[in-house]
Structures
1.
Amino acid sequence: MKNHSSPTYQGAELFSALVFICAMSAALMYTICNSVVFETTCIMTALSFGIYMIFYALRKKKAYAFFAFLACFFVVTIIFSVFIRLSRVSPVYFIFRASEYYDATMAAAFIPLFSFMIGFPTAYFSVYLPRPAFLLLPAFIPLLLAAKTANGLPAGYVVFMAVGYALVILGVSRPEFPKENVYFDDKKSRFERLGSLGIFGLVIAVVIYCVPRNTETPMGDYLDNAFKVRSTFFAGNNLSNFTNTSSVNHGSNMLSENVLFYASADKPMIVSRWFFDEYNEDGHWTAHGDYTTGYANWKTYKQSLNTAVLSSKLRVAADEGQLSEYSDLLKTLPKISEDTYYSSKIMRIYIADNSNTKVIIHPNMTVDVNIRGYDDRIYRTPMDEIFTDRNFGQNASYSLSYYDQAPNNELISLFEQVDMEELLSAAEAEGVISITEKEAFINERDQAAEYHEKTLEEPISPKIIELAHEITDGLSSDYEKALAIEKWFGEAKFVYDLDFIPRETTAEYFLFESKRGICTDFASAAALLMRAADIPTRYGEGFVLDSDNLNEYGYYAVKAADAHAFAMGYIEGYGWLEIDGTKYAIAADDVENNSVIPLILLIIAILLGTLAFIFRDKLSEVIFGVGIYFRSDRGKIRAVYLRTRKLACKIADKEPKSTTSEEVRGIISNSLMLGAEAEEITSCADALFYNNTVDPRAGKLYADYKKIVKMKRKMRK
């Protein structure tokens, strides 16, 4: 019967493994930590190679290697879990957008995880179960991530990975079989190979199919067809028609930099997209059925809602002796020239994302819309959504006329002191304003009151009502209350943070627990607080025309990243006023991430300390080898002899202090067959210790010592 002994492995060439691991680390860090690729590559290479060396050192002790695997897996899992909880960024966001927005906390979570995923397979498939082809498996990690984000790896990184793979194959561990035995491929080793391949194949399949990708890429269509997976993030990635529910902040919002449309305007502002009326406990806003019908004959009505014109007409009437009952109050209104109060401004919008939509993006107080090449009707709902009968063409353009009016404090104050309907009726009766103007203002007020009553059918949380009363305590006008609520978010130190992952999506959680979120959170909270303060309010979503996006042609390049949510409250004497608590919020400070640096350094220090302990003998030899060149000839003789004596006593299991130089020579000669080297070392030592003379051979003693160490390792003494 043949004796089938297991083969032994001498271990892979360490330098080739280091290059391979460095190549994998560099490619991976380029994909997910692009802004700090050099630093993170160095850290990950050190961690990955450290994990590799742990298993390399235990290559002949499989039981210890198994427990080392469990220990490493446990430590990496703990580190990953801790930093995931500390971070305000979701894992998916970090993986796919960290190259644009680096987060140190999430990097501290993922780098140990990926280090384990590269370091252990490299050791396993090059030392424990040498299968060069399987060493390609770690390379799939950066390649898949690069494909999913559609960034692609630069040619230099691909070449570096190929070189690393070639080197590790050339230096892979080779099995050594006893000459008297015949090795055959038994079922156990075959099962190990198939099992390993199956597990890694499953992991790769899950990554390909389940992990969402960055949708804003040149390869987007190809990836959609290949994997049939789409990801949806806050604010969407294109202009679409009306939606049923509002956006909700689930955290780690991936903001697209795709330009949706260009807009001309003389200053930054908010433009509206759509509005919602009813708030659900899960954080969603939906449209009330009574306010989704659009009307085509809205332009005349809207053009009559010019508060500057109304204020000027009332003031002129008072100066001319009309409306005597209100004369004293009306004379407090400012005088406005006709050229100013009759003029409207023009905004032009050019859709740029290939959308073919019905939705008209528009500023507040829009009074007219002109769509190039579109002749059908344009509708407007009572809640200020504007849309068309049919899609008005891909990449269409249109112009909008709107009133750009700041709140008229005097007119607002006037309507608080008098009955608005009586004053306007008197003004219409005396010919100061037309009946159309009177009805436009009164109808808007009545519609706002009716809207407020209907939207309060779903009760607001008592805690929110109590908070609203606290914020507006002592204020009498709706205008003052609205501004107080808007500014309160800054006074209460709320934080605007795109990366924060909320535990709940409710306004109560945002107001009373997290105090951190995005515009949808601020808008929802502001809308509910204003309703609780008895102000008719709706929730809106649109875009911000940001001065940072103003191009050389004078147009605002509006991106999906500029999507914005806000509240609009009805103020008698002005109309619907934008309330945006976000503008008073504190921006999330990236410096917070620096607090994890000491923890990262501590983890690295622990790992380096562990490696130093495991390889203490080799480290001691390296330190000794460096230090020997700085010693005098006397020091070299003494140091080399003492190290040689210690090594010989370890072989013979003797006490160094009681071992003579003759015994040292005999042990080295008999055990390692290096009599000449042993004789030189001990002779020089005897001459120094007994005759106080320095042998001229002192300079070559370290070379003799290295031969002894190398032979001891080779003969496994």
Note: Confidence is low (pLDDT under 50) at residues 1-5, 177-186, 213-237, 590-595.
2.
Amino acid sequence: MDTEGIVAMILRHRPDLSREDVLRMAREKMKSIGAGYLTEQGALFLVASDLGIRVDEEIGRMRMVGGGATVALKDLYSGARDVSIVARVMKIYPVRRYSKGDGTSLVLRRLVVYDNDRTMGLNLWDDAADAIERLGIVAGDAIMVSRAYVKSGLNGSLVINTGMRSSVELVSVGGGTGLVEIRGLEDIALDVGYATEGDNLVVTGTLCSNPTISTYSNRDGELSRVMSMLLQGSTARRVRVVVWDLNYANLAKIVPINSRVMVTGVRVRHDGDRVELHGDAGSVIKALGDHGNIGYAGSTDEGLGLMRLSILAVSSAGAGAGGEVEYSIDGSSSSMGDGVTTTGRYAIVTVEDYSGKTRVYLLNTSSLRRVSEGMIIECIPSRLLGYTIYLDEDSYIGGGGEEQRQRSKAAIHEPTSKIADVGDEEQLYIIEAIVLTAPRVDEMRLRDGSMRRRAEALVGDDTREARLIAWDRQVESIESLRVGERIRLYGVTARRRPVMVRRDGTGHGMGDDSMAEHGYGGDAYELNVRPFTVVRRIG
């Protein structure tokens, strides 16, 4: 333990003393014993003992590394200098550059790190800022930061900072390395259903909605992205997770629907009785488990392989200029605030994997100049989130295209589903049905007092009947339907709910009354028209 480490140890126990007081006491100790007997460090050990501080216990709480000592985060204090810490990475922010008055610039890479006792911010300045890319550091890695100093942030919280002599390195903890084991991200993760209070939480849950990425103007007036999704915990409670200033570097390339998802560094926000979790640019989103091999050639956990997309229908309902569609995450009102706009150009596509199974997806076509039904596109998408495939500047787009439209359209298989075959899982369907009742349009008042339009009609096929439901702009797509018309629905989501039967014989969805007072009466089916859904009359 060096001089500064001993001084820091004494000041933690005696905050009434200053650094100068402690050093003065050490000099007096050296003078009283005589020259040639004590070093300054040795005198400080005696000073600590005189003050009733158990030096052996303090050293036991330190982890010896290469002749130096690392300090637990809980033992840091504002003003501490030349300290070394070992911690795991929870959040990684993008690089920021600041101009100085002399024409030079500062480079900053912010992290949030944690050990077994505490979470704390870490600022990597200038040369240390490139450690993330240079060392390949990712969330969950253990790092050692040497010769850093500690200051209080604007909100009073402690922040570790690197200086000119500081260093950052990847380390292993536990397993006989000499470093105390620090629990991994999954080990400290909280089931999303139990997240009711706190900040810098790591949560896990099952992705039960299609994530949407929207744009908005942040506090600096810059155009930024926000991602919203619903996660379901073991309690069956669904929680909205919103990540502001989304950093694509922290977003996994494959996050399938119904996969177990982990999000780092979120805080709890209450909206009335509803709980939301909010993250920021440092939050990391990843799918847990083996989701790399999702049935497409060359797909891994790090990215998608080659896909052959067949475009069945191009979305137009609710479209604005340029065919862009604005929508909320699940057809319900969003609490993300004003100025958030979710737009994009979309198409309903099918993809056949190498096992021969055909799946229905939503394709974000914003990067394609021309999109028409019947096109076949060979590509390597940039991302797959929920049931949406994203093509952007990082994607490979190869063979196929407009020239194949006419000869390929007849060969495209449309995998229609029967109403009775839909499940509870969030996915897209193509369903053919007959309209059984005229659509009914109502004005609905929400909890916040706003009004929304809702349309509903009964449709059926040779297996079941279902309620066809549309909201807001999507009402226009079904309100003109007539009884007896045959329709095909491209890209609807479905829900199957158990129905309880009252003693008087009437039915209703579960949860309206006590199950003990009613009997099970089968399942009720709902088909939900999304803003990208294409409703087409056939026959």
Note: The CA atoms of residues 103 and 222 lie 24 Å apart.
